[in-house]
Amino acid sequence: MTALIGRVVATELKPSTPHQFHFWTARESPIGIGGIVRVEAPDRTVLGIVTDGFAYADLVTPIHDVIGADGDPALALSAPTDRTEIRLYTAAVLRQYPEEPLQPVPLGAVYLATDADVVSALRMDGFTVGERPTGVPIGVYHAGGVEAPVFLDADFLLGPEAAHLNITGVSGLATKTSAVEFLLGSIFQTFPAHKGSVAAVCFNVKGPDLCFLDQPGDLSDDDRRLHQRLGLRPEPFADMQLYAPYKADGVNLNSLRSNEALASNTVPLVWGLREVLDYAEVLLNRDDVDAKAGGFIDFLTERVVGKRFEDITLSREPLEVRSFADLEDFFRRIFEFMEVQAKGSEVWRNHHMATIRKVRNRLGNISLRAKGLVTDDGQPSDLPWGSFADRSVHVIDVAGLDPLAQDLVFARVVSKLREHLERRDLGVDHVVVFVDELNKYAPADGQDTYVRRMLLDLSERGRYLGLVLFSAQQFRSQVLRRVVGNAGTALFGRMDMDELATPGYGTLSPATRAKLAALPKGELMIRHPHFTQPLFVRFPRPAVLPGRLGVERFPPAPDLPFAAAVARHLRALDGAITTQRVAELIDGHREEDVRRSLHATRRARPDNILAYFASLLGRKVQREVPPARPLAGLRRTDDPYA
Amino acid sequence: MTRTWSRLRRAVAARGFTPATWIPAASEGRAEEATIREARLIEELPISGRAVGASEPWPGPVAFLDGVQQYEVMAYAGASPLVVAEIAAAVMERRDRQLRVARATRRRVVLARPSVLADLGDSLTEHVAIELPEVGPPHPVRDFQLARRAIDAERGRLEVEVGSGFRRESDAWMIVDGSLSESPHWSNDPRMIGVIKSHATLPFAGDELEQYLRLRQGWRSPVFEPAGREVAPVFSWALRLWPWEGKDLLHGLIRIEAAATSAILEHADRLSRWLLAERSPVSTPDPRWDRLLYGIHAVELYLRASSLS
Q1: Where are the domains of chain A?
Q2: Contact present, A394 and A269 (Cβ < 8 Å)
Q3: Is there a contact between A46 and A115 (Cβ–Cβ < 8 Å)?
Q4: Domain residues of chain B, as ranges?
């Protein structure tokens, strides 16, 4: 039993109800906004959470204080007696015993909640004990010296009952990224075996935020203690892969995690024409993809790309379109045929030339804007579809990509996850997809995009598949309401006052809103289906290297000349390979051939890396040295401005 | 003790008494007749007094003593009233600017003619029974006035009891709401002060009274010895806490009583300066805030808030 801290009071103007009550405390009480209390009365126990607080003295009007101090604020300090003050708190009921009949809170003694009270008040006794517990630690509730672990219900976090999590808060102070990293770690360590396997796919959309999840961070003693209190090991993610596209040169990674020491689990993300064409709708806006253009794209997808396309008017040999280069050649042949042999006709295979030109322009634009992600050689390097490992984290670094390419990555990865989870052949039962800057991808206002529709679909139907969206943004009010509304669990870090003034926060008390506006780092307010009221918790810093420190500890590799960059990739497979040897091997070969060999070698991972790489390089290209032509001598003139 | 009068009410009803509905204004001040009783000047000062100097905080802990009473006519036995009262007294001690209850006592009293009390028999076990004098035939108004005086006296006794109890444990300065004449112990206590808000009994007449009532703010009158205090003589002086100009002659005017000793005479200015400091905080919303020290106000508030009935 904790110490008595107050008494319930009820007046005609401020009565107790079944869902709210008021109590007073001594001035030096340890209770505060967000604190959980227990009311003891004969035949009834009530657990509540403090939502508001008031203090006032026996002063009727401020003028009396002025009179008492002779109008001098300094003299007010010398008053020999402090006025009688009251500390009056309003609390929202979390739970009552007995639960039926539901009655107004009685006038009773108020105590600080114990650990057991916190478990009961938050109804955690329903899912943290028993044969099949589903509790996932999220942080500790702390008030008045009580520090009790708080758990989320995995059934309501990762499905099937409810799912998805959304976190909101101002940039830099709300610890959104840290909270998600910590929670993912917590899920990986405590997700119950009877619920199956779980993996995470995180989109790194800015800077180095999520680039070093496999590296240990520096934790304080308090962080370690909090981990221990929550029953967690302070460890980074053991199985983490980072996928990053190349820069435009096709060999240097477009990521801040390009240090050679981390190359073993840093994987290029490269897609070919086939992968892109399936998601053409992402890249082309609604005006572009009219029925005619859509029909031609379908024609390309079903009849041309990746197939042997036979058309004697274009080529005597069957055409094989596997890359953007092949596609460009395909289009060129059509245009040549139409210009030379079709005698002014504007229709090729029922497709108007204007439509064909439009599709060619749009698709060509993709290969330019997404250069580095999209390869010309037709050989993709992708996520391990079908072989996702339990407790694996896949970080996709799209921070350096053009927004159009980001949308492409996002749409394709999520769509592929959904396809595999529907077929139950992804390798894991649940996947958490973490998307930061949700207001950018699923804005409340603006154009309806493929990505927004996909996020909405994910938030509404993902939980049945085990596909769970963890999302974050600065301003929840700027995100499509149905997307955040479908998040069963919501976390709130430090909030902007303007945001708090929006209607979405109207159910919070003024004191709770004020606390949110000044919430320190490492603290969050939680809404979860089991908690009937929002709850404040503190969580430790995650045991991973923060992105900013990661960049200092593992400085990004400078962009290397072509040969050196290729050698670096091969060294990740065989440490003995030297730049000089690679330079000798690739001398005289076309860069696209070298890239194709490199990607094939990375995929195959043969025993003899260098020999395999060399075998795929093909023939050398003979240098053509144009004969030197004598330059005609310049005529001299005296005009200095000539 | 039961929290309400209900048990006694049932007993009264069972004995065939006539229930009463007249509830007088609760906790009126002590009954006091307006009069002038000329005092003997102890200090050679003009009646218009002198400035005591700037206010000074009271050094060390200070205690405030006050009592309250609530009473009502519960029933009539024939024409004879049965009066019930709750009286209470408390001392609150101030340390580090904080007031805390040091001692408190409350008592329930039943007042009636002896024959009426006898009829109630066992029902009075939880209450103090006070017999009213049987002067003449029962008269509901006269008997009630007698009961009220008895309640005043009982409250005075309770205050003395509580004050004496506190004094046994502490030698802190004690400020009493009212006269020190309640007890010879009080009037001899060198660290006790009575603060009188009522000016029903005035010490001077004529021009002297006019001067007395026109004391300037922060000034005190000369020390005098009030008349009629032979059993428990005290020294007294008036002190103006707040400017009266534009308000009322009595606004902010208090009369102080202290032990009749040379030390008190010597320290009247200093005590006045300490009392001046007690103007703040003002004890609003009490209408007597200009004369009611906040410490006394707090005791009253405590006693009323914790009333049993």
Answers
A1: 4-121, 146-269+381-550, 274-369, 560-615
A2: no
A3: no
A4: 1-30+67-170, 34-60+172-278
* Yes or no, beta carbons of B98 and A82 under 8 Å apart: yes
Lowest mean pLDDT among A174-178, A287-291, A452-456: A287-291
Q: Do B281 and A81 touch (CB under 8 A)?
A: yes
Q: Which residues of A touch B289 (CB under 8 A)?
A: 64
Question: Taking CB atoms and an 8 Å cut-off, how many pairs form between chains A and B?
Answer: 55
Q: Per the CB < 8 Å rule, is A75 touching B98?
A: no
All residues at 6 or more sequence positions from B88 whose CB lies less than 8 Å from its CB, including other chains:
B67, B68, B69, B104, B105, B106, B107, B158, B303, B306, B307
The 8 Å CB, 24+ separation contacts for A144-147 are A144/A2, A144/A5, A144/A30, A144/A31, A144/A35, A144/A112, A145/A30, A145/A112, A146/A2, A146/A112, A146/A113, A146/A114, A146/A115, A146/A118, A147/A229
Q: What is the CATH number of domain A146-269+381-550?
A: 3.40.50.300
Residues of A with a Cβ under 8 Å from any B Cβ are 58-61, 64-65, 67-70, 75-76, 78-84
Please state, in angstroms and rounded to a whole number, the distance separating the CA atoms of residues B149 and B140. 14
> Which residues of A fall within a CB distance of 8 Å from B290?
none
- The model's pLDDT over B247-292, given as tens digits with 9 standing for 90+, comes to 899 999 999 999 999 999 999 999 999 999 999 899 988 999 999 9
Task: Report helix, strand and coil shares of chain A as percent, to nearest 5.
Answer: 35, 20, 45
Tell me the per-residue pLDDT of B162-192, one tens digit each, with 9 for 90 and over: 999 999 999 999 999 999 988 888 999 999 9
Q: Is B156 helix (H, G, I), strand (E, B) or coil?
A: helix
pLDDT at A630: 61
Specify the higher pLDDT residue, A355 or B24. Answer: A355
For A34-54, what is each residue's pLDDT tens digit? 999 999 999 999 999 999 999
Give the amino acid at A352.
H
User: Inter-chain contact A80–B62, Cβ cutoff 8 Å?
Assistant: yes
10 Å Cβ neighbour count for B227?
A: 13
Distance set, CA B229 to CA A303, B9, B197, B257, B265 (Å): 123, 42, 18, 11, 17
Q: Which of the four pLDDT bands, split at 50, 70 and 90, describes residue A358? A: confident
Residue of A nearest to B97 (CA): A81
